[in-house]
Amino acid sequence: MLAVARVRDDVRITIIEDGGAVAGFFPHQRSPLGFGRPVGGNLTDYHGLISRRDLVIDPLELLRASRLVSWEFSHLPIEQASLASCRSASSRSPVIRLGGGWERYCDWLRGTGTQILKKQEYYRRRMEREIGAVSISHGGCDPAALDSLFRWKSEQYLRSGLVDVFAFPWTRELLRGLMDCRSRTFRGVLSELRAGGRLVAAHFGIGTQEAWHWWFPAYDIAFAKYSPGMVLLIDAVETACDEGVGLIDLGRGEAEYKARLSNDSIPICLGEVRVPSIRIRARDGLSRGKDRIRRSPLYALARRPLQWAGKLERRSRFH
């Protein structure tokens, strides 16, 4: 939250009081028109209230007090019942629980029938034979490695037709700032896989003493045949066990590796809290107009403009 506030000027925090005492906080980003989003927007994999578990609030009163007409959420823990009552869909965020240690996790993986551990060991040995000595580190602070990650991830977004998250200066500055965080309770975690002295894959996430969050993995596609991203992740899981970390959160998503490696998940939900207003009605009217065009004979003519409008809307979420 504070890291995002250092690189953006629209971060706000509503303080919630109960009986004169502070009971919680509602961090958010607010647009000039009063539309709210989670701090960090689409970058954040969890958001909502920071409060005691038994806090019950009226979502509409919270928004009015925050001077918001709406607040969208896509990764809200479903246990936050007050806000989750406004959900439109539910999902789950896959996690790797490591309470039993590395060997017990490996036994669980083998029990699922996967050959992933054998395959990653094979790829690691193959890299050593064909490229050079393999080294992996977690928790470094090499700016050049982070820049390589930005470049690889941008290329991946463009290949996939997605918005390039790192085309916006504030996102890169956010991760650079997080990489410098080295407190006992919170830190940026930069992981690097090198073969023959060359950076082949990298990942940037955040971590505490209890949990790591797998956030932005990327690799040089010239080395895709060695599955370097998976080699790096498997090593990160083993390292986390060695450091006493009990959980690695892989984040919501349909990537195959998340389904193969996760042994549990955290229920989350998507939706929007809305305060009735002219601004909400105008936005809804615009959305209904777009839907009618899509279903009409005019769509063939309007398809390209609508696609551009959608792309601009998705990009606007990062401005």
Fill in the keyword field for this structure.
Aminopeptidase, 40% helix, twelve-stranded mixed β-sheet, 319 residues
Brief overview:
The chain has 11 helices and 12 strands.
What does this structure look like?
The structure is a single chain. It contains eleven helices and twelve strands. The protein is α+β, with helices and mostly antiparallel strands and 319 residues long. The protein folds into two domains: 140 residues; 147 residues, Aminopeptidase (3-Layer(aba) Sandwich), CATH 3.40.630. Strands 1, 2, 3, 4, 5, 6, 7, 8, 9, 10, 11 and 12 form a twelve-stranded mixed sheet that branches. Strand 9 and strand 10 form a beta hairpin. The model has no long low-confidence stretch (mean pLDDT 89).
**Average pLDDT score:** 89
CATH class of the largest domain: Alpha Beta
Structural class: alpha+beta
**How many domains in all?**
2
What is the β-strand count? 12
**Rg from Cα:** 22 Å
Instruction: Give the SSE string.
Output: HEEEEHEHEHHEHHEEEHEHEHH
What is the global morphology? Answer: globular
Strand content: 25-35%
The CATH level-2 architecture of the largest domain is identified as 3-Layer(aba) Sandwich
Count of separate DSSP helical elements: 11
Query: Low-confidence parts lasting 5 or more residues at pLDDT below 50?
Result: none
The CATH topology of the largest domain is given as Aminopeptidase
Straight-line N-to-C gap: 17 Å
Helix content: 25-40%
Largest sheet: 12 strands, mixed
